[in-house]
Write a structure and sequence with these properties.
With about 400 residues, the protein is mainly alpha-helical. Helix content is about 65%, strand content about 10%. The protein is built from eleven helices and eight strands. The chain has a three-stranded antiparallel sheet. Strand 7 and strand 8 form a beta hairpin. Helix 4 packs antiparallel against helix 5 (about 155-165), helix 7 (about 205-235) packs parallel to helix 9 (about 285-330) and helix 9 (about 285-330) runs parallel beside helix 11 (about 365-400). The N and C termini lie far apart (about 60 Å).
Length: about 400
């Protein structure tokens, strides 16, 4: 799933202990944009805990309660390691926790869960002198998130007792002990299942559906790849290895990240009945063809419309430089070093990633607002860049006259 890049906010540049956070988290790719730090998390590697909770709640994904306990325990262990660094998070909800598995992906059928990496994002500015108070809040937030998740399985008597015990403590050590003891007493370590697990489903049916679902996702990306290459060739007529082309394609991937979520959400919601056999009248292949017919083309048109607007903006920003250049040429008889289109596109990409980390841009109005913000910012940056170039030229001319 090459395209799906989730952009998440980490913290501001002046955030206390930022260096310690970056050292602790060991993020792969960090972007500094306007003194804010962002991280790019590929969807084919990472899943947000909030998304994982929602997909298990809807029963699109099947995860054993034993696996939920094990994931929850790893998150708490990671939080414990954070506290060792004398750092707190401040906003430890499920939206700010990301998980990467080891050579596996969560799926419509249960898999063996081996966690390779956990990341916290969106650190909140807190007075670190109040470390103990901040620590209590992080523990409560983590506990409430975990209780909310395992409550999906509260029909199991052992889970009811576990929830009651978790709700009665604010001690991180005790919470970890409760989960560890539960795991030792009730979970088969090899299969990661609960003893007498009540997770019942037609595994054969889901296995048969799995290939169709994987092909659906693969087909979506292949169509998008072909569409954007054709559109870029027609719009800009430049080689695919040209730096400007590469930057434009990266911008497209960011846009696709937002728009594709609608398609995948629609598909997941509508396929649940088929996977759980509550919908006996609809076949999965029929649903896939219906979604392709209705939604693929619509989102291609939306993506194209957004890219067209971005292409126009980049053209306008490039022309802004040329106009400034002509005025300087006429007045000072000198040439300025102007930014290349690929440099403007790269700056646009970073700002777009930053704005998308703050907005849910499912509506065109929201996207247009983001474009306006980026336009104003880049106009200011370009003007400052050209004015700096001009000052250097003037100082050189003055020095030459001495």
């Amino acid at each position: 799933m090459e395209y799906y890049q989730t952009i998440q906010y980490i913290a501001q540049e002046n955030f206390p202990y930022l260096d310690k956070i970056l050292e602790f988290e060991k993020y792969k790719k960090v972007i500094n944009c306007n003194n804010d730090y962002l991280i790019s998390l590929p969807q084919d590697e990472y899943i947000c805990l909030e998304e994982l909770i929602e997909l298990t709640k809807s029963q699109y994904l099947r995860i054993y309660i034993g696996q939920v306990i094990m994931i929850a325990n790893r998150i708490l262990q990671y939080l414990k390691q954070l506290f060792v660094q004398k750092i707190t998070h401040g906003n430890l909800c499920s939206n700010n926790i990301y998980i990467r598995l080891d050579d596996q992906k969560f799926n419509i059928i249960p898999i063996r869960v081996e966690i390779a990496q956990i990341h916290f994002v969106n650190y909140k500015f807190l007075n670190q002198k109040q470390f103990q108070l901040n620590r209590v809040k992080d523990i409560q937030d983590a506990r409430n998130t975990i209780v909310s998740w395992i409550s999906q399985y509260k029909k199991i008597s052992q889970i009811k007792d576990l929830i009651d015990n978790l709700n009665q403590t604010n001690s991180l050590g005790l919470i970890i002990d409760l989960l560890e003891n539960f795991k030792k007493k009730y979970i088969y370590i090899e299969t990661q299942e609960l003893i007498n697990d009540e997770l019942i489903f037609d595994e054969d049916k889901r296995i048969n559906c799995l290939n169709s679902i994987l092909e659906f996702y693969q087909d979506f990306y292949q169509q998008q790849e072909l569409h954007i290459e054709t559109w870029l060739d027609n719009r800009f007529n430049i080689a695919q290895d040209h730096p400007f082309y590469i930057q434009l394609k990266e911008i497209y991937k960011l846009i696709l990240t937002q728009n594709q979520r609608n398609i995948f959400t629609i598909f997941q919601i509508q396929s649940i009945g088929i996977l759980n056999e509550s919908d006996q009248d609809t076949k999965l292949d029929d649903l896939i063809e219906q979604i392709k017919e209705i939604h693929f083309q619509h989102h291609q048109q939306l993506n194209e419309q957004q890219m067209q607007q971005i292409g126009n903006q980049i053209d306008q920003l490039a022309q802004r430089q040329i106009s400034f250049q002509l005025k300087i040429q006429e007045k000072w008889n000198t040439q300025l070093k102007i930014l290349q289109n690929e440099q403007i596109a790269c700056a646009y990409k970073i700002l777009l990633a930053y704005e998308l980390s703050k907005f849910n841009c499912n509506e065109m109005k929201v996207f247009q607002k983001i474009q306006q913000i980026i336009q104003i910012c880049l106009e200011k940056e370009i003007d400052q860049y050209l004015e700096f170039q001009l000052k250097k030229k003037i100082l050189k001319l003055m020095n030459d006259l001495k």
